[in-house]
Write a structure and sequence with these properties.
About 45% of the residues lie in helices and about 20% in strands. It contains 32 helices and 33 strands.
Length: about 950
């Protein structure tokens, strides 16, 4: 204890005099004299200091011990008082006037300091809310030696009063409403002959449990108040005097004896601190132990403040005789016997640290900031300064240990820069390791640490750093940085381990493929991944895998896109749509079309109803129809040409022939492969367009373009015919000069009976007419079909074939002869029809004239309708039909027998007149007819196109009407 350092962590704030108005009394000569007052008790709280005097007066002081006001709660003397914390109440114990001889003058009062009541015009006192007599018949009177109040749940108070007879009177309840309970505690057993007075009390509240410490000159006891009745426990057989008791922040009971200061907890004596000297006063303030020690030799009093955690004396000063020790406004207030006061306050942390730094007491400074629970930034600053001090002394190991404690607050670059020297690489490695353990390392820190490991070739530490169980789970280093540094240092195994543990599959495969070239292991690793991860990985590295391991890669892709291991099967269209599409992986086959074709074929064989079936078929068609499926690189072609050019002078004739044979063999293999592919392409064109569907499972326009670009005539013919583009079909045959196929196609597609287009023969005839070569055989065959279906008039046929100079008249002689004979027969038939029509017309005209000029004699004797004898009234029509008037009914203007025929003729005429106004229909019929002249003639024959005036037409209509009327 004597070796403890002394520091001035506290300073005197001010020295004040308690300016208390002195009481004035009159002497025998009636002169007023001042009477000296004595302070009996003190208390503090809620921003004020309260003192009680021997004349029953209580004074209240504000900050700086400035007198506020006073009042007299008791008539004689104030023995004890306590300012409550939760409420602005003051509890006092003092002597009042004796109302009866058997009653004790001591009473307890509770004052509400927020409520003032006026006593007279000049003074005012707080409202007294409760008065209680301390001693009763059950609780005999004794001298009070200690007093303490515990605020439970307001307004409940627990008051413990220690007596000189070794008893403790406890009062619990609401004193203002007089709802209280009393009980008594006995500190020492009654069997003891001598009873010791209670010198100190202290409450300990721990949750629901409430305990009371009690000290006498000979013992320390503990009462468990939560037990009924309260249970007593003796903690020690030594005690203390009055004013040598205090309670610490951790609810430890402190007693001071001449030889030492003792701490007690509920289970007995705790630590003991040896301080020599009589302990006049003991206190506790913010973790500091306060003692006023009297030196027996010199009689001087010393006030010491002890920092028990750091084992130092924070303040020491000689003081006058102290009567009371208080704590308010963040200061320690010492009340002296002479009523003077000394206020001592703690210095700020910065001042205390500066004091220690000047003396290079960094360990003390560190302990100080840690025990006083300073913020982390302040602690880190102290550690940094200590580290700098050690670094300047070249104690690098200890300096680094201090810098490590600053991690999280001190910028790492400050430390790293100091230890970048190669001779400090071990210290730097240690710092970087701690930085990673706390998860505060950046990418640059990871790079630097791994470089330290690789520079030191410390594989063991590298393994520990990389392969620790929780390193990656807690992200103690940047994964990408670690992988990159390990790769650069050729620690591929470590890089792969980090990538795999962190789930960075792309990095793992990049090392396998780019650094190690281990394609088989890469494929196995991809197979072990989830479908989504495997798909993303193959998209990135598929080109390399297809180049070196095409079959294995395709197998993995098939498993991904079909999920063969799943038992749900491919028939579930919804499930298939959730799988990766083969279209997503087309980019990896950009230089390997054969592998792409193999992949898509295997996929289509397994999955029939893929959502991407159209895109897949389009890609396959492009592969099947393309002329060249190989894309040789420029370097390969250059190397081959250089080899041949360099060796051309050395090749013999036999070697040249051999090379020629190899080239022919390669060419034949290429042609064979092309034929097989196009056979597959034609099969796909047909199978992907079933007869019952309107649209195929591929893009028709794309298919046509591919067939045209690669001169795939079979595909074009199928597509044109399927789309009913018959003219384009025969155009393909014409371009290929395939006359036999052209005629066969026209036979199949030009038959109108089977829904074909007969106009194809016209195009074929035109083609042969403009061909410019002898094609007599084909022309004769074409003319047979033109003649059979009467597609073209002979004049058009002659004009068309006349353009071919290689054709002779003998080709069409028979055709012309048959046509002329046929035309002659038709002319003769037309003449006979004309004569018949002229004869009928003449007969009609005579009949009309007869009707107009001659009378008609009606000789019918029976009614045409009912066939009974005709009697009057009767109606006779010009058509020679007669009817009873009753048989006609309401229709008397037209003959019932002839009217339907007449109306049908009129309706036909109206329709013809209406059709004559539809010009589009007329021209459409002219265009679509084989003989447009016949259509025009028909319109003229039906009277649709006529120059007859409206007047003559109307006249004709009126004549017809009159002829059908009655008399």
């Amino acid at each position: 204890m004597y070796q403890w350092r002394k520091f001035e962590f506290f300073e005197e704030k001010y020295v004040a005099k308690c300016m208390i108005p002195e009481e004035q009394q009159e002497d025998d000569t009636n002169e007023k004299v001042k009477k000296e007052r004595k302070i009996e008790c003190c208390s503090s709280g809620r921003g004020k200091v309260v003192t009680g005097f021997d004349d029953g007066t209580v004074c209240l002081f504000d900050r700086g011990l400035k007198f506020n006001y006073s009042f007299q709660p008791h008539s004689s003397s104030v023995l004890f008082l306590q300012q409550l914390k939760q409420r602005n109440f003051l509890v006092t114990v003092g002597e009042d006037e004796q109302l009866a001889a058997q009653q004790s003058p001591l009473c307890l009062k509770v004052f509400d300091l927020d409520k003032m009541q006026s006593e007279s015009t000049s003074t005012a006192s707080p409202d007294c809310v409760g008065i209680l007599r301390i001693f009763t018949n059950q609780f005999p009177e004794a001298k009070i030696t200690s007093f303490i109040v515990l605020e439970e749940v307001p307004p409940i108070l627990l008051i413990a009063i220690g007596l000189d007879n070794g008893s403790i009177y406890c009062i619990k309840g609401d004193i203002a409403r007089e709802r209280i309970t009393r009980f008594k505690l006995q500190v020492e057993n009654h069997s003891d002959k001598t009873l010791s007075s209670v010198t100190g009390l202290g409450f300990k509240v721990d949750g629901q449990s409430l305990q009371l410490f009690a000290a006498t000159p000979n013992s320390v006891s503990l009462f468990s108040l939560h037990d009924q009745p309260p249970r007593r426990q003796t903690l020690d057989q030594i005690g203390c005097g009055i004013n040598s008791v205090a309670m610490s922040d951790r609810s430890e009971f402190i007693i001071g004896r001449p030889e030492a200061v003792y701490f007690y907890e509920v289970d007995g004596r705790g630590p003991c601190w040896a301080f020599e000297g009589e302990k006049k006063l003991v206190g506790w303030f913010r973790g500091y132990l306060l003692c006023v020690i009297a030196d027996q030799r010199t009689g001087k009093h010393t006030f010491n403040i002890y920092d028990l955690k750091n084992r130092l004396i924070a303040h020491s000063a000689l003081v006058k005789e102290v009567s009371h020790m208080l704590y308010e406004w963040g200061n320690i207030i010492l009340i002296m016997k002479d009523k003077s006061a000394l206020s001592i306050g703690e210095k700020d942390m910065e001042s205390k640290l500066d004091m220690l730094f000047k003396k290079n007491l960094y360990t003390v400074a560190i302990n100080l900031v840690q025990t006083q629970q300073a913020d982390a930034a302040a602690t880190s600053e102290v550690l940094r300064k200590y580290g700098d001090h050690l670094y300047s002394k070249q104690d690098y190991d200890e300096a680094m240990s201090q810098y490590i404690h600053t991690i999280g607050h001190l910028e790492p670059s400050y430390v790293i820069q100091k230890f970048l020297d190669a001779q400090r690489i071990y210290n730097l490695t240690n710092y970087l390791e701690k930085l990673h353990e706390k998860g505060l390392a950046s990418k640059d820190h990871t790079t630097l640490l791994l470089n330290c490991y690789t520079k030191l070739k410390d594989v063991e530490k590298l393994n520990l750093f990389i392969k620790s169980e929780d390193s990656i789970g807690e992200l103690k280093f940047d994964v990408e940085t670690a992988i990159r540094v390990c790769r650069a240092a050729n620690y591929h195994e470590h890089a792969m381990y980090v990538a795999k543990k962190a789930g960075r599959h792309e990095w793992y495969l990049k090392i396998l493929l780019e650094d190690l070239g281990n394609y088989e292991e890469a494929l196995e690793y991809i197979s072990s991944l989830e479908s989504s991860q495997a798909g993303m990985t193959i998209k990135e590295y598929g080109k390399i895998l297809i180049e070196h391991k095409p079959l294995e890669t395709i197998e993995i892709l098939i498993r991904l896109c079909t999920d063969e291991g799943d038992k749900r099967g491919q028939s579930n269209g919804v499930y298939v749509s959730m799988l990766p599409s083969p279209v997503d992986f087309l980019s990896i086959f950009v230089h390997y079309p054969h592998s792409l074709m193999d992949f898509l074929e295997k996929y289509t064989n397994k999955v029939q109803d893929s959502p991407a079936q159209v895109e897949i078929n389009n890609t396959l068609l492009e592969l099947y129809i393309s002329n060249e499926l190989n894309f040789p690189s420029v370097s390969q072609s250059n190397e081959g040409s250089d080899f041949l050019n360099g060796a051309s002078g050395k090749l013999s004739n036999s070697s040249a022939q051999t090379n020629g044979t190899i080239a022919d063999h390669k060419s034949s293999d290429k042609d064979k492969g092309r034929r097989e592919r196009r056979k597959k392409g034609l099969h796909m064109l047909k199978s992907a367009w079933p007869p019952e569907t309107e649209h195929p499972l591929y893009d028709v326009d794309l298919a046509i373009i591919l067939c045209e670009m690669n001169a795939f005539r079979d595909g074009l013919l199928y597509l044109y015919e399927k789309m009913k583009l018959y003219k384009e079909v025969i155009t393909c045959y014409m371009q290929a000069h395939d006359h036999e196929g052209l005629i066969a196609c026209c036979k199949r597609l030009g038959d109108s009976v089977k829904g074909g287009d007969p106009s194809l023969w016209e195009d074929v005839l035109k083609y042969f007419g403009e061909l410019g070569e002898d094609c007599s055989k084909e022309v004769k065959e074409v003319l047979n079909y033109i003649e059979r279906d009467d597609i073209l008039p002979p004049i058009i046929v002659l004009q068309t074939l006349s353009k071919n100079p290689c054709l002779t008249l003998s080709v069409i002689k028979d055709y012309i002869a048959r046509k002329l004979e046929q035309e002659s027969k038709m002319i003769e038939e037309d003449r006979q029809a004309i004569d018949k029509y002229q004869e009928d017309t003449q007969t009609m005209r005579k009949e009309i004239q007869d009707l107009r000029t001659n009378a008609r004699i009606f000789q019918l004797s029976k009614c045409t309708a009912c066939t009974f004898t005709l009697d009057l009234p009767a109606v006779h029509f010009m058509c020679m039909h007669s009817f009873h008037l009753r048989c006609l009914g309401d229709n008397e203007k037209e003959c019932p027998e002839c009217a339907p025929e007449y109306r049908s003729v009129l309706e036909m005429k109206r329709n013809l007149e209406t059709n004559s106004k539809d010009q589009d229909r007329f021209f459409q019929q002219v265009k679509s007819s084989k003989d447009g002249f016949s259509v025009i003639a028909e319109y003229f024959g039906k009277g649709i196109i006529s120059k007859t005036s409206n007047g003559s037409t109307s006249g004709l209509r009126s004549g017809n009407a009159s002829s059908s009327s009655g008399f």
